[in-house]
Design a protein that fits this description.
alpha/beta, Rossmann fold, 7-stranded mixed beta sheet, globular, Lipase 1 isoform X2, signal, hydrolase activity
């Protein structure tokens, strides 16, 4: 959720920096490992840090093809991690082996599965629809994610591991979609050993972020277009192109997500695409 809002605001700021040339600022400011991680996808990050990396796919009842990334520990208890709006499986490992929840759970003996919901950069498959040409592909929200994506992921993980239950960690939209599944498809509650809700979202009416009004107006301008805010390197190529641009971008960004310079290596991992019906605002 915060990533989608800040992207809308910063997008207008980034257009002021038309060169798109990184120069030497990025290299002079950040360690080489941070810059490298910003460009790596989930599997590449796992491989870089010497963790077993697997890619699996499942198909939902409504024919969306989803990708799960696994830090494999065969025979161990499975845990499923599901990201928030505009995010991907990389959110659980992008902060590195010392801080990433995916790495932590693996180090503590779990078989870690990281889901990617429909529409993000890793889960744009469909049995019939083309996300680039078929508007109907994007006719979904967190409701469909809870009704179809999570059950498909859960069934896929349990079938592969042979377990009857798994533990679930959700972040932001990953909690909302779980609440949908738990209430609308209660038979899946028996397949959950533990659910941990990180930054849970059930209602939106009391949000008071300073840029909320501007974000709501801007999001409504997109109407029923196809994908909103697909994955790109606009943050990396503009917000980190100079000290002045970084300061300008972060002034907005930190109002939404909080101030932490050490977490700026996430800017090439989000946003990662979502459908117009998931706007929430």
């Amino acid at each position: 959720m915060p990533h989608a809002i800040c992207f809308l605001v910063v997008l207008g700021v980034c257009t002021l920096d038309g060169s798109g040339v990184l120069g030497g600022y990025l290299e002079d400011t950040y360690p080489a490992s941070v810059i490298e991680d910003a460009h790596l996808n989930t599997i590449q990050l796992l491989e870089k840090y010497k963790h077993p990396a697997e890619t699996h796919q499942v198909t939902t009842d409504d024919k969306y093809i989803l990708t799960l990334h696994r830090i494999a520990r065969p025979g161990a208890k499975p845990v499923l991690l599901v990201h928030g709006l505009e995010d991907t499986s990389s959110t659980w490992i992008v902060m590195g082996p010392e801080s990433g929840l995916g790495y932590f759970l693996y180090a503590n003996g779990y078989d870690v599965w990281m889901g990617n919901v429909r529409g993000n950069r890793y889960s744009k498959g469909h049995v019939k629809l083309n996300p680039n040409t078929d508007k109907s592909y994007w006719s979904f929200s967190w409701h469909e994610i809870g009704m179809y994506d999570l059950p498909a992921m859960i069934d896929g993980v349990l079938q592969k591991t042979g377990y009857q239950k798994l533990s679930y960690f959700g972040h932001s939209q990953g909690t909302t979609s779980f609440f949908v599944m738990a209430s609308s498809r209660p038979e899946y509650n028996a397949k959950i050993h533990l659910m941990s809700a990180l930054a849970p979202v059930a209602f939106m009416k009391h949000m008071k972020a300073p840029l909320m009004g501007m974000a709501r107006m801007g999001m409504n301008m997109f109407g029923d277009n196809f994908e909103l805010f697909p994955h790109s390197e606009i943050f990396l190529n503009h917000c980190l192109s100079s000290a002045a641009m970084l300061k300008t971008c972060m002034r907005f960004y930190w109002q939404i997500v909080g101030k932490n310079r050490e977490e700026q290596n996430m800017v090439d991992h989000v946003p990662c695409g979502f459908g117009p019906s998931s706007r929430w605002l």
